[in-house]
DNA sequence: TCAATGATTTTG
DNA sequence: AAAATCATTGAT
C-alpha cells in the first residue's frame, strides 16, 4: 500500500457527493511536527451561486475566489470576529462549491474545529492534496450517514434554508 | 437572550 | 466613509 490520502479526484466531484463521503474520513494535521488524526463527523454542503446560503451567491469576490478553484483547496474565513471556518472546495474549476467541516470526533462546532486544528487565514487556498501540514485519508469504516438542514443560515430564504445539506454520523 | 469581535460586502 | 452582515459560541 502506498498511502491512504484522498487525491484530487475525490474532491473534484459534486459537493453533494463529496460532503457525505467525507463523513468518517480522517483529517490529518501536523502541528509542530506532531501528527494528529481527526475523524470527520459532521459537514455541510454549499453549492453554487444559486444557493443563497453559499457565499458564492454574491458572485465572485476576493473572499469567494477560492471557491471557484477546482476541488481540493481549503476555503478559510473569519466569522463573528472570532471563529475561523474551514471548508474544503469541491467540484470543477469555476463551479463554486465547498464543504464546511462542522464537527470532528470529540470536538463540536465548526469554530472549535478550526481552533483545535490551529487553522488560520494562512491556510486559505492551501492544497489538501500536496500540503505537508494538512491532508485527508481514508477513514475507519462506512458509518451510517444522516441528513438535516444547515445551521446559521436563516437568511437564505425558504428554499435554501430548508434543503437538507448537512451530513453527520 | 445576547454580547463579543473583525473581515467582507453593501449602502439594508 | 459608514453600516450591515455574518457557515458561532458561551455566559447571563
What characteristics describe this protein?
single chain; 169 residues; DNA-binding; globular
Short description:
The protein is an alpha+beta fold.
Report on this model:
- The chain is of the alpha+beta class.
- Helices cover 15% and strands 31% of the residues.
- The chain has four helices and nine strands.
- Strands 1, 2, 3, 4, 5, 6, 7, 8 and 9 form a nine-stranded antiparallel β-sheet that branches.
- A hairpin with a 3-residue loop joins strand 3 (74-79) and strand 4 (83-89).
- The longest helix is centred in the N-terminal third of the chain and has 8 residues, at 15-22.
- It binds a DNA duplex (12 and 12 nucleotides) through residues 44, 46, 53-55, 58, 61-63, 77-83, 85, 87, 98, 100, 102, 109-112, 121, 150-153, 155.
Helix and strand topology:
Layout: H1 8-11, H2 15-22, E1 26-31, E2 34-47, E3 74-79, E4 83-89, E5 97-104, E6 107-108, H3 110-116, E7 134-137, E8 146-148, H4 157-162, E9 166-168
Antiparallel strand pairs: 1-2, 1-7, 2-5, 2-9, 3-4, 4-5, 5-6, 8-9
The chain binds a DNA duplex (12 and 12 nucleotides) through residues 44, 46, 53-55, 58, 61-63, 77-83, 85, 87, 98, 100, 102, 109-112, 121, 150-153, 155.
- What is the rounded Rg? 15 Å
| Dominant shape | globular
Portion of residues in beta strands equals 25-35%
Number of helices: 4
Total E-strand runs: 9
Percent of residues in helices = 10-25%
Order of helices and strands: HHEEEEEEHEEHE
Structural classification: alpha+beta
Low-confidence stretches: none
CA(first)-CA(last) distance: 28 Å
Q: On the 0-100 scale, what is the average pLDDT?
A: 92
Q: Could you give a short account of the major beta sheet? A: 9 strands, antiparallel
Amino acid at each position: 500500500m502506498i498511502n491512504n490520502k484522498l487525491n484530487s479526484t475525490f474532491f473534484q466531484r459534486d459537493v453533494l457527493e463529496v460532503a457525505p463521503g467525507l463523513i468518517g474520513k480522517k483529517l490529518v494535521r501536523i502541528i509542530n511536527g506532531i501528527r494528529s488524526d481527526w475523524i470527520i463527523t459532521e459537514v455541510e454542503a454549499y453549492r453554487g451561486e444559486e444557493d443563497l446560503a453559499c457565499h458564492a451567491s454574491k458572485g465572485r469576490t476576493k473572499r469567494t475566489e477560492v471557491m471557484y478553484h477546482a476541488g481540493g483547496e481549503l476555503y478559510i474565513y473569519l466569522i463573528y470576529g472570532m471563529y475561523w471556518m474551514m471548508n474544503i472546495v469541491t467540484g470543477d474549476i469555476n463551479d463554486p462549491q465547498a464543504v464546511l467541516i462542522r464537527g470532528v470526533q470529540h470536538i463540536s462546532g465548526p469554530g472549535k474545529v478550526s481552533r483545535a486544528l490551529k487553522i488560520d487565514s494562512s491556510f486559505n487556498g492551501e492544497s489538501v492534496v500536496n500540503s505537508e501540514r494538512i491532508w485527508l485519508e481514508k477513514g475507519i469504516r462506512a458509518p451510517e450517514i444522516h441528513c438535516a438542514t444547515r445551521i446559521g443560515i436563516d437568511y437564505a430564504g425558504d428554499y435554501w434554508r430548508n434543503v437538507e445539506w448537512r451530513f453527520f454520523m
